[in-house]
Amino acid sequence: MISAYIDRYEGNLAVLLLGDDMKKVNFPKEFLPADVGEGDYITIDIALDKEANEQAEAEALELLKD
């Protein structure tokens, strides 16, 4: 998991400071929980979606058959 600090909002974007190094990234505000705001800390969990990858591969292979 990645710790992130919500530094501020700029329009539809949230400026997040990630990790110990506080790397600045812009993140769509719509994907944040409704109850968070500037000055809050959140955690972000990024994981590989194997099922979606397998489904996309199967769909691509099916298209190649035609």
Automatic annotation (TrEMBL):
Top-rank taxon of the source lineage equals Bacteria
Natural source organism: Selenomonas ruminantium
User: Which InterPro entries does the entry link to?
Assistant: DUF3006
> Which lineage is the organism of this entry classified under, starting from the top rank?
Bacteria, Bacillati, Bacillota, Negativicutes, Selenomonadales
Task: Please give the name of this protein.
Answer: DUF3006 domain-containing protein
